[in-house]
Amino acid sequence: MDALTISAASGLRSRMDTLDLLANNLANAETSGYKTDREFYGLFVSPEASSEQGGEFVTTLPVVERQWTDFSQGTLAATGNPLDVALSGRGFIAINGPSGPLYTRNGNLKIAPTGEVVTGEGYAVRSLGTNGKPIRVTSDKPIDISPDGVLRQEGQNLGQLEIVDFKSTTSLKKMTAAAFQNTDPQSVPAPAADVQVQQGRVETSNVAVPEAAMRLVNVMRQFEMLQKAVTLDSEMSRQGIQEVARVAS
Fold first, then answer.
1. Looking at residues 79-87, what average pLDDT do you find?
2. 129 CB contacts (<8 Å, ≥6 apart)?
3. What's this model's pTM, rounded to 2 decimal places?
């Protein structure tokens, strides 16, 4: 396989990664609290020969080096549902995942049959200062949620949403569409500052649909051009072999 085909194949692979990312963003454009994923391109240095630099042959190939998440706030949309909450400002609602705490900005909450307040994915919302115990309410009584996240029914405090923030979000790994896991034990969550809970609203995804759609079209065009480059290089190689065979005969 020559240098042109290698470079084109690497370009195809990176565009496939980008297409998957963009398609996932668009698929979750209506998911509350969803955060856009973006890619960071880099160059892979290969010992395969294509150009000479400093007496050594190297090939640089385009690759998606890493993926990162845009945590900018989405629009806070009114729903009228008293169990919906949106965070205005930095921070995450702490919830109990299958193997430990997770963090989300999807405030589309529900009441489980057990009385626990849970997310749409069924993860219990953690009550502040209780070492992760869930908040329990009565389903047939009105619920009031204050700007600091305290849940009340008939004037009785039932618990407070555990809202935390991180100095850096680089340690947060997306586990579901809108829930993140902290992968760095050194990055300890702290109580969020300057954040307000708004009842009866949800935070929409921060996916810019027109931009994502335009990028999707552009990447598909790039993909098609790279496919043509591979086909052209293969045809040139085939013709070259045929010409050599004619001369040899």
1. 96
2. 160, 162
3. 0.80
219 phi and psi angles, rounded to 5 deg: -65, -35
Give, for 41, the enclosing helix (H) or strand (E): strand 37-53
Dist CA 231 CA 175 (whole Å): 39
153, 82 contact by CB (below 8 A): no
Phi first, then psi: give them for residue 193, nearest 5 degrees.
Answer: -110, 150
Side-chain half-sphere CA neighbours of 6 within 13 A: 14
Helix axes 3-27, 209-248, angle to 10 degrees: 160
**Residue reference for tokens 């000479």:** 52
Q: How far is residue 76 CA from its own chain's centroid?
A: 19
pLDDT digits (tens, 9 = 90+) for 109-142: 999 999 999 999 999 999 999 999 999 999 889 9
**210: Cβ–Cβ under 8 A, 6 or more apart, which residues?**
none
DSSP structural state of residue 84: B
Contact 185, 115 (CB under 8 A): no
Residue among 31, 175, 206, 34 nearest 95 (CA): 175
Give the residue among 174, 36, 178, 32 at the shortest CA–CA distance from 108: 32
In which residue are the tokens 């586990």 written?
Answer: 175
pLDDT of residue 201: 97
Q: Structural domain boundaries of the chain?
A: 3-71+207-248, 76-203
Q: What is the pLDDT of residue 50?
A: 47
pLDDT in tens, 49-59: 444 445 444 45
